Amino acid sequence: MTDLSSWKAVLLVGAAIATLWGAMPDIPGLVHPSAVAVDAVTRAS
Amino acid sequence: MKTVSFPSMSTEVTLIAQGGHDRARREIEEGVGELSRFRPDSALAVLNRASGRPHAVPSRLLEVVRLALAVDPALLFDPTVLPDLVAAGYDRDFCLLERAQEDPSAARRLAEAPSPGPPGGPSIARLAELLTPPSPAPRRMRGPAESRPPRPPVVVDPERRTVALPRGVALDLGGIAKSWLADRACALLEPPALADLGGDIRARGARAWRVAVVHQRPLGVLEVRDQAVATSSILRRSWLDRDGRLAHHIIDPRTGRPAVSDLHSVTVIAPTAVEAELHARAALILGSAEGSALLRERGFRAILSLRNRDLPMEVRPC
Asked: How far is A44 from chain B, CA to nearest CA, in Å?
């Protein structure tokens, strides 16, 4: 019989990895904007 | 620390500082009154209508014209590209297009003249298709192989405080005015201070400021301290010309046409907003190879987004 709590743990770990992956910056040294509060945004205007 | 925000130059201005907000705001508003080409009563618009003879100009306009004319030729900045910009279709303030979506009277004003297209510009997916060398050459514009003929020089007399534009020449200070005002406004704020003029950012004082970099999507957060950041992109203020090809406001002065390179956005960190803006714009025109070499040589950190690559490229000084 499948242990539901272990499946739940797998799903939780998977969700955490997915969240971290989404928060990973593309450039080393940069923090993803969703991870910190910012003072300003530079973009074309 | 107090934050003041207000609309200006078709964008949002934010001033964060201990004090000095009122004088910094006044400087920006008076500066826009002198430097905007979209205000018919601005000192710049009056100067452009007075070409062919020396014309007395107010102090900010005189200073920015002198600065614009003295820019290092390697940065491919030419303030006399206004006729090329208008020929490419950028003949009105983009905020008029945006307001027209909500305001019937703005929509009527917009309808009185042919529109260059919707605000915002096409998606990256459409860029590769749209930014192909033209064939045949578009109406009213030169082909890419044909370089722009030299124009007679603009003459500035600092003692008489006059500028003489040769007949038929008009100035656009769009590539420098906003960043110059960011530097000026920040100097009037009590540090630690940050002046953000729609993405042209100048910070002053010992505090580290977090600045998010957005090139169509958020890329990351930079930390700046007593520095400036500016982004140049062809993704905003772009439109389709009458031949259905992409046109935008970054004119390559070598051809007199909207620049075509492998880049769509460039962010530069530099000591001043003017330097950041001029170098971001130059890199955008030059493309990733020559642009990154220029930035590295000048000692600036930058983030470049390529049209055909998902991952951005980072340039670090040598």
From this structure: 5
Structure tokens at B301: 């950190």
Cβ <8 Å between B221 and A40? no
ipTM (interface predicted TM): 0.75
CB contact at 8 A, B174 and A2: no
Peptide bond into B114 cis (omega under 30): no
| Residue located via tokens 């940065």 | B75
Residues B122-158: pLDDT tens digits? 455 555 555 544 444 333 444 444 566 667 789 999 9
Instruction: Verify whether the Cβ–Cβ distance A42 to B233 is below 8 Å.
Output: no
Pick from B220, B237, B312: which is nearest to A33 by CB?
B220
Find the distance separating the first CA and the last CA of chain A, reported in whole Å: 59
Chain A hits for B221, Cβ within 8 Å? 25, 30-33, 35-36, 38
0.80 exceeded by the pTM? no
Size of interface A-B (CB pairs under 8 A): 94
Which H or E run contains B35?
helix B21-35
CB atoms within 10 A of CB B119: 19
Residues 6 or more apart in contact with residue B183 via CB below 8 angstroms: B195, B202, B228, B272, B273, B274
Q: Report how far residue B20's alpha carbon sits from residue B129's, in angstroms, rounded to the nearest whole number.
A: 48
* 3-state class (DSSP) for residue B99: helix
